[in-house]
Design a protein that fits this description.
The chain is mainly beta. The protein has five domains: 129 residues, no CATH class; 168 residues, Chondroitinase Ac, Chain A, domain 3 (Sandwich); 70 residues, Sandwich (Immunoglobulin-like); 75 residues, Immunoglobulin-like, CATH 2.60.40.10; 93 residues, Sandwich (Immunoglobulin-like), CATH 2.60.40. 1% of the residues lie in helices and 51% in strands.
Length: 595
């Protein structure tokens, strides 16, 4: 192995390619002037009292040190130019940079050593993960580009208070439990903390879990200097001792997939803290909770949280937050405010029609229970309750996965309704004096009111109705009532049956004089004129005349030619229906035709 060892020699380089494995500056002075380029194919070791200077003005016209392997600094490096490093960074002494940039362009690289390096600009490039092994500082900008900076258990602190002091395309910063990303602020704009992780454990081993990028957007409420720090824990907060089941009652649920640690480590300014999330993968959240605001061992609601969006994210923002202390913050949902049951206290008879009502609020759903059984949903519900008894009514108000209930015991009481029923000794009357006995078969009643059409009534349980000179149907009504005021009604019609009165002559003389020229029955009452048939037969059983009109008369002729029928005895048959019944009456007899 070749090693270039520089003792107390002063070198000024304008362009140099060193192909040795290691450049060992053991007390020498190495200066790369602006515009020069030094390429070390191996590592750089700046040891003893050596001073390595990479001069420049922070732009592309500066000198550039390109190292294929590691840089180890045990003395002093001055770098206002560019350092491009493919290996690891081990700083154990003094690194001065007021405008230079260190580019980490290798694969997986470590930012280590025993010193808290104060870079000016840091740019991540190349591939892989850049992992800290000690605290590091950027006094200018941190450009993540598309790469992953793992602070591990340490802090990466950006002292530049400009809003754009941290830049990225898709890059992110992850931290183990104990590490964090810090930023100085001195403006009221939005400071991005591009936190994420592809590990699901407190150790934050890169690539060992599901990737999430969930940044914090922090807006200080004044221009005073402050320092805020953030870590995203890509795991259930309960696994890091912050039990999500330990929460005040107003909190319904909290995010099981990740939480953030947020702190203000310098200053006193309040800030709007926005926690970004993706609803399709993280769930819907509308609030934030903080661990131990004023009660130990519990998640508590953060007031004044608003919901909005950022590019590619939904966001829950705690407005004007100034209660820094314990650091865990988590997305949460609150139990909705219980809906008021606006249905008044009600008592009535079965079946009882009730309208259940509450004041509707956007985004909330409502369901109703009667004695613990679901009866329907909606801010207004019409329900018929039939079973007797008192009902405890519960209104469940739901928002997403969160619900709260409100109950009123014995809000509705349903009384048993009696059943009215009766029978009678007679179903018909005929106008004569007669007595009808009524038999009460009702149940659940202790009071009765009978009405006999227009002919009075009775309050007896089993009354007797005396019929006298009634020639119409009678509607009998029984109202059965209970002591609680519930009633039921039943009815029956007692039909008036009018006896048919008719006369059928037994002869007639159609001889063209003025007397007894036609024959026909004479009906005066008790029949339905629309249900009447009359047939006359000769002695051979032939129908020689018929009629469906009780007022029609036979003139003793036959057929369309009106041929005179001979003297003799003829048979008649009559069919008619009495009024108010479906019964058919059939009668027959003989008549004598005499000319």
């Amino acid at each position: 192995m070749r090693r270039l060892k520089l003792l107390t020699v002063f070198f000024i380089f304008y362009s140099l390619l060193l192909r040795s494995q290691t450049v060992n500056n053991n007390g020498g002075f190495i200066t790369a002037q602006s515009g020069s380029f030094i390429h070390v194919n191996g590592s750089v070791l700046n040891d003893a009292t050596g001073i390595f200077s990479v001069n420049g003005n922070g732009t592309s016209t500066s000198s550039e040190l390109y190292v294929n392997q590691d840089i180890t600094n045990n003395s002093t490096i001055n770098a206002d130019g560019y350092i491009r490093l493919l290996g690891n960074w081990f700083d154990n002494a003094v690194f001065n940079s007021s405008m230079g940039t260190v580019f980490f362009e290798g694969a997986n690289q470590f930012l280590g050593g025993s010193s808290t390096t104060q870079f000016f600009n840091v740019t991540l490039d190349g591939t892989g993960v850049k992992t800290q092994q000690v605290n590091k500082i950027a006094n200018g900008t941190l450009d993540l580009k598309s790469l992953h900076l793992n602070t591990d258990l340490y802090e990466f602190y950006v002292t530049n208070s400009a809003l754009n002091a941290i830049q990225r395309t898709t890059g992110f910063v992850s931290s183990a439990n104990g590490g964090y990303l810090s930023r100085a602020t001195a403006n009221t704009g939005m400071y991005l903390f591009p936190t994420g992780s592809n590990a699901n454990s407190s150790a934050n081993i890169p690539g060992s879990g599901l990737y999430r990028y969930r940044p914090i957007e922090l807006n200080p409420n004044d221009n005073n200097p402050n320092i805020y720090s953030v870590r995203m824990a890509n795991l259930d907060a309960s696994s890091e001792t912050y039990d999500r089941n330990s929460a005040e009652s107003i909190i319904c649920e909290s995010n099981p997939k990740f939480y953030h640690q947020i702190d203000r480590i310098f200053g006193s300014s309040s800030a709007d803290i926005g926690v970004c999330f993706i609803p399709v993968s993280d769930g819907n959240w509308n609030d934030l909770a903080r661990w131990n605001i004023n009660t130990n061992g519990i998640w508590q609601d953060i007031p004044n949280v608003s919901n909005g969006s950022s590019i590619g994210f939904s966001k829950a923002t705690a407005t004007g937050w100034n209660n820094f202390g314990d650091i865990p913050y988590i997305l949460s949902n609150l139990n909705p405010i219980p809906g008021d049951i606006n249905t008044p206290l009600s008592q009535g008879c079965s079946p009882l029609n009730i309208t259940f009502e509450t004041t509707s609020s956007p985004g909330l759903n409502y369901s109703w229970l009667a004695n613990g059984v679901n009866i329907g949903s909606g801010s207004q519900l019409n329900e018929v309750l039939t079973e007797p008894g008192c009902y405890d009514i519960t209104l469940i108000t739901t928002a997403g996965n969160c619900s709260v209930s409100n109950s009123i015991n014995s809000l509705i009481c349903v009384e048993d309704t009696p059943v009215s029923s009766f029978s009678s000794s007679e179903n018909e009357i005929n106008g004569n004096t007669q007595s009808i006995y009524f038999y009460n078969n009702s149940s659940g009643a202790d009071q009765y009111q009978w009405t006999f059409g227009n002919y009075g009534g009775s309050a007896f349980s089993n009354p007797i109705f005396n019929v006298n000179n009634i020639s119409e149907n009678i509607l009998v009504t029984l109202v059965a009532s209970s002591s609680n005021g519930c009633i039921d009604t039943s009815t029956m019609i007692i039909y008036y049956k009018e006896d048919a009165i008719f006369y059928v002559p037994n002869s007639f003389t159609p001889d063209q004089d003025e007397f007894n020229q036609t024959w026909g029955p004479v009906f005066t009452q008790g029949f339905d004129p629309f249900n009447f048939e009359l047939f006359i037969f000769n002695r051979w059983g032939e129908v020689i005349w018929e009629s469906h009109d009780a007022a029609a008369r036979w003139d003793g002729t036959y057929g369309n030619s009106r041929t005179d029928c001979p003297d003799g005895i003829y048979t008649w048959k009559i069919s008619y229906k009495p009024k108010n019944t479906d019964e058919k009456i059939k009668i027959s007899g003989h008549l004598t035709l005499i000319r």
